[in-house]
Fold these 3 entries.
Entry 1:
Amino acid sequence: MNYRVPQPVPQVILDDVRGAQKMLSGVSRVTAMEGSRHLSALTGSPVHLKCENLQRTGSFKLRGAYVRIAGLRPEQRAAGVVAASAGNHAQGVALASSLLGVRSTVFMPVGAPLPKVAATQEYGAEVRMHGQVVDETLAAAQEYADRTGAVFIHPFDHRDIIAGQGTVGLEILEQCPEVRTILVGIGGGGLAAGVAVAVKALRPDVRIIGVQAAGAAAYPPSLKVGHPVSIDDPITMADGIKVGRPGDVPFKIIGELLDDVRTVSEDALSSALLLCLERAKLVVEPAGCSTVAALLSEPELYGGGPVVAVLSGGNVDPLLLQRILRHGMAAAGRYLSLRLRVADRPGALAGLLAVLSVVDANVLDVSHVRTDPRLGLTEVEVELHLETKGPEHCAEVARSLHGAGYKVMGQ
């Protein structure tokens, strides 16, 4: 399905992206392109992963930030820069500013992951915590810019930012010239817009698909009405694309050049992160693997030629990673939680565990409830957390328990 916006495309053109590529020589890395046998088998087309999670600062954001700050006039550099970000843009601005000798202040949401906050500080920025979501943080940074004269470096809504991010598209065409489809995650839209400008100018036949988290998907309703609209209270584990309103500049480009925008669930995001870690040996944050989540969710849409999925970032809080991995394993049928009642007598639990042992289910945790008034006088409720081998194994465990006379109360 194609969305079309009647407004003219803003002046971000291929020459801008090529100029940004020259400017970034020796600054950003030409990140690796890795094949994925699992995803290729799933889709029926060769799938390649563009590993921007291995970029300096751990995401593509350095590209746009450096191009934007490098283009400032001397008096603007002297005034310093200010930015707002949940983490990746923050680190990109901090490092770019340090490389260019510019003072930087970065506003971050109160709940920003601590490793991202620490990294931003280590790259040389002064960090200020404000707001619960990126949109509130953006407003605070803009107010600071108005009050102090610092130059506001928007994370996505500026032509220089878009040109810098577009260098990812040039690299994709150089590394995979036979590409037929490119998947790009969308938050505010800077990366998708930049990739679209570069790729569509050189290869208009290539499909470009944007991907948003379903709980923070402002682009589909915006594209339908033809202008950016805000969504209330975006909710997703993918903090890097948790943006409540599309940027005006990238919105026009995306409306004109992208072929489609898809959404993915939280289950798909966690499963994609787990797949990247287990199969590709890559640490990718939830926003960064949204493209893989799209492939997992609707593999039938991506046949007919080579696919490149951009892994946009790898900065993930270890505590969040731990929770996501558990969630991903549960979504993939690798964890199973059960509640059932057994007789409250010696040996009853041993008998239950023996049944689970026969079907090779690994018991991670066992808890007992004896005080529920719904229990009989001689009953105890047992809650089990099991490690399993997938959905078929989960079904086998359930059948074995039923066959042994156990009544499963919840699953």
Note: Confidence is low (pLDDT under 50) at residues 1-7.
Entry 2:
Amino acid sequence: MVRPGVVLLGLLALAINLRAALAGYPPLLETVRDDLGTSSGVAGFVQAAAVLMMAAGSFAGSALGARFGRERALGGAVGLVALGSAVRGIPALASLIGGSLLAGLGIGLAGVLIAGVVKEHLAERAGAVTGAYVVSMMVGATVASAAAVPLATALGGWSFSLAVWAVPAALAVAVWVPVARRTAVPDRAAARAPLPWRHGFARLTACYQAGTSLLFYGWLTWLSPYYEGQGWSPQRAGLLLAVWSVAQIPAALLAPALAERRRRWRFWAGLTLACGVVGTVGAMLLPMPSGPAPWVWAALLGIGVGAGFPLGLTVIAWRTPDGAASAATSGLALGVGYVSAGLGPLLMGVLIDLTKGFPAAIAVLLAAAALQAWAIWRIGDRPAA
């Protein structure tokens, strides 16, 4: 049996890499477009393809964990993130897409497997632990988005900036290997929990994750280009994205823990979503590129999406009976969420090309917020199963 503290430290090391590979791309998006001669739709497709592969990984993660063991499969998943990041070091559209697909698959698998590992080893503090590893993910994303343009300048190209993230991913796998080796091999004859498509709670969590994931990846992909369209430099727009990421950290850490105190999940999920809606409407109607408003909108957006993801995983951990059920429910919720999130940035890019502006694209995010709000109301504060 592995000590819970050792498991937690390993999870935090792995989690740093579960957004960095994708967060480093948006600040370089316009540079990639100019270098490769692509449209906004194609540039958005790169991120969309990665997120859709995250969906595929989410759907497959529960079965893969049951076959090989969640701990072992988790190490392999982050290994795919390292490989995909390295492939993106080749400055060509095919390698950019191919590497993004590999990284996305690894991230999707890891998200489901982590949920099962938390339920298995750290169930007593599921809310706090979920917040902690999501914060670790956000730290990686913040560093990646802030450093993307400077790294591209220092290393001589956008592709090298993207490839850098193979290094921390490989190091994290090395840290996790001893944990995986000390866990028991699963009984392959044991019953496996299928994806719970017919379970009402699971479907509601899928709707919730569809909304929060689309909001997150929509803004992750298009926040920087939106403000570049307002006349900002790529460096300043990348810094705004970093502020958006930083604002997610306290929200991700505090909201699940506060909700866990008295099981007031609906209140905290609704409050943080309201912050995200205010930020979205503000950015659309009052961007004010020369004033402080963009930084306020980015902070509010960060609070909304920062709390949304861990709150969704926390309520699953509360209401599932064991690690297998938690992984299966998370797999369904995250898979549906990532399908929505993958199509969202692509649709936004197409709308930007068709309308020659961003309002229609941002309206897609408001629709996602409405879906998330409905799911929050229906999930409510019922006792854990």
Note: The mean pLDDT is 85.
Entry 3:
Amino acid sequence: MREVAIVAFGQSTHVRDSAETSEVEMLMPVLHDVLDQTGLAARDIGFTCSGSCDYLAGRAFSFTMALDGVGAWPPISESHVEMDGAWALYEAWVKLLTGEADTALVYAYGKSSPGDLREVLTRQLDPYYVAPLWPDSVALAALQARALIDAKLTDERELAGIAARSRRDAQSNPHAQLRGALPAGEALVAPLRTGDCPPIGDGAAAVVLAAGDTARRLTARPAWIRGLDHRIEAHSLGVRDLTDSPSTRLAAERAGAFERPVDTAELHAPFTSQEVVLRRALGLDATDGTVRINPSGGALAANPVMAAGLIRLGEAAARIHRGDSDRALAHATSGPCLQQNLVAVLEGE
């Protein structure tokens, strides 16, 4: 199989409200950053793919406006997914595997501040039985957390520890929205407190992919994608065991994550309870010291919807670029209670 690597990663500084900045203005510095890292110009990119959500923007085909930040003239080969940018990376990866391009630019962005995010995300639910009840994303995550606690798979003390570790690790991340020690906070939806939940914020991210010798030419230490797979749970929450994530486990197996141990895991867990589910599905122990889990702070430190999953892949790749990691696992999710899950395995040379 053709070798494909992440050769550059960039992201915005994530903020609670970017009302004075449009999507294009938020994206352009990030796009220039990743191109500058590789020395490529827009005309050198063989394929461009983006991830975003029209529900966040409140208008149809909003992604076409973001193309102004890329430059669509002369005409480019371009695609878009109404998903987190991690799935846009998957499409670009397949494009490079087929040999139709040698380089790809992948970007994603989300502005959650203009509306009520908890209500917006109800539109992901089953439209016949669940969505009419308007259960919001935090309430559903609380159901999952309660199921874990009732099954004695975690407790509120462990969840508070996950939140504290994530925010502490985010101190070294200049792009994080929340950094440093924060209190557990007030009860939001029992058993979740505000500290167990991600911040609402705006942000963008981008990566450049390259194949074979092109990747080696563009960066000293490419982050090779050794495996990449994504799976989905049943749409109906009532037929799922919320304490487990079989789709994450299967995606990891197909991506080759269990063939050898990893030293880094960037998990897209917007809620502390979801990290517990993912660690169990992936066989990761946060206490044995052999694997760093979310050294960037993860989604608990910055969670720009539609970009947070791509950021997990980018953060894992950046650690390989710097020589801080040799084999990393990156995970992205979408939908309520870890409904859709993507797992990638990245390695240095």
Note: The chain has a mean pLDDT of 93.
